[in-house]
Amino acid sequence: MLDMLRATGKKIVFTNGCFDLIHTGHTRYLRKAKSFGDILIVGVNSDTSVRALKGDKRPVNSETDRMEVLACLEPVDFIILFQELDPGRLISELQPDVLVKGGDWPIEKIIGRDTVEARGGKVVTVGYVEGSSTTGMIEKILTTNDSCAKGTQEKAITRKKKK
Fold first, then answer.
1. Number of domains in the chain
2. What is the value of pTM for the model shown?
3. Could you read off the pLDDT of 103-121 as tens digits, one per residue?
4. Range of the domain at 158
C-alpha cells in the first residue's frame, strides 16, 4: 500500500512511542510530525515492550485502547503495533521518507536514522513541550491522590476528636 501512495507522490512520515496517556505534548508532536509529509504512520509499542521500557506499572492503558485513541486524532493516518523494544525492524520494512522523534532524542541516537538516510530520507526532531509527559501526569495524579487521602484522614481524626 505504501508503494501505491508513494507512486502518487505522497511523502510518508513515521514516528513511534508508547502513547500511554495522551496529553498536549503528544497532540502537538503528532501535528508537527504530520506537517513533514502527507501520510503519518504511528508505531505503537506493545504492552509487553512498554513494561520492559517503563516498568511493571506501565502501560496504564492497554495497547488496544492506546491505538483506538490515536486513531481518533486528526494527524494520524495509520497505526501499527510493534512488539520489539525499538522500531528498527519496522522502520526497515516501512522505509519512510521522514522519521520524526521528540526533541529529547539526539539525532545520532535515533533508531532507524541510518535506514531512512540511506534511501535519501530525512530525520527530524520536534521540540519537547515542557511539563507534558506521561510520567509527569502519573506523578501528579499520585501526589494529588496522596494529598486527598491525607486530607480525608485528617478530617476523620478531627471529627472523631470533636465528638
1. 2
2. 0.83
3. 888 999 999 999 999 999 9
4. 133-163
